[in-house]
Amino acid sequence: MVKRLDVIPHFKSGHKFAQFIIILLWGSIIISAIALGFDVFQIILLYKIKAGEAIKEATAIANDSRILVFEVLRGLIFLITIIPFLMWLYRVHRNLPALGATNLKFSPGWVVGYFFIPILNISRPYEAVKEIWKGSDPDWSFSSLEKAPVSHLIGFWWAIFLFSGVMNYTVGKDYIDILIKAIKATETISSLLVTSWFMGGLLVIEIIDAVLAINIVRKIDRRQEKKNLQKGGIRGHPLKGTCQEKKTIP
Predict the structure, then answer these.
(1) What is the pLDDT along the chain (250 residues), one digit of tens a residue?
(2) Angle 151-132-245 (CA atoms, 0-180°, nearest 5)?
(3) Under 8 Å CB-to-CB from 57, ≥6 apart: which residues?
(4) What are the residues whose beta carbons fall under 8 Å from the beta carbon of 26, sequence distance 6 or more?
(5) DSSP 3-state of 141
(6) How many Cβ atoms sit within 10 Å of the Cβ of residue 47?
(7) Is 49 in contact with 189 (CB distance < 8 Å)?
């Protein structure tokens, strides 16, 4: 009887990835905050126009154009952020066996892959992030993660993320169309007002979600670095791979 030994991948710090993602998330917060300011100014202008106050056409068009530019920037910063975020998720999940976690429900590849599978992407990414949180807990000494504690932050973050995604897909794309029509002076004041209020609320929600994401990324990073230290690694450096008995081969 020969026992086969599998090497567990060594710990590879995700600290630099985490720092980069946090910078990008702060960038998205700043862009959303500026866009919110322009949206509020837009609402004020629209109420003035509705009340019969004379507003220079150039002022209204300029504000519509600024909002349109920042809507494009919001989309770009999201795309720029999501790629390193998924790369970071892959790395921190891949670290879990080196940190002592066993019987994991997900593989690093599927942690990323489930984001792109319709229906399953509603719940599986959330479950995967919970698994990462549990497996990174430096105060949880058991290899099984079933009863490990998990932060409510993850649930709030994911619920807001899904909601803002749906709102962006429905209201967001219509908002851009309405802005373009407004610049061409073919959109009504009432339509602009309703959409501007919706977009203002959505921007606030996105800012809150980005703050929650920053906290989650920072805490998972700190937890993994601390747990790596507990297991004999060096902060920001790999813990050497270990061997684990996999199965018996006759």
Answers:
(1) 334 445 567 899 999 999 999 999 999 999 999 999 988 988 888 888 888 777 777 777 787 788 888 888 998 999 999 999 999 999 999 999 999 888 899 999 999 999 999 999 999 999 999 999 999 999 887 767 878 889 999 999 999 999 988 887 777 656 656 655 555 554 577 777 878 888 899 999 999 999 999 999 999 999 999 999 987 755 544 444 444 444 333 3
(2) 135
(3) 185
(4) 210, 214
(5) coil
(6) 12
(7) yes
**Closest CA relative to residue 99, chosen from 149, 135, 129, 144:** 135
CA nearest neighbour of 28 among 65, 67, 64, 76: 76
Range of the domain at 137: 2-249
Count of the separate structural domains present in the chain:
1
pTM of the model: 0.83
Nearest CA-CA partner of 21 in 115, 87, 112: 87
Q: Which token pair is 95?
A: 């670290």
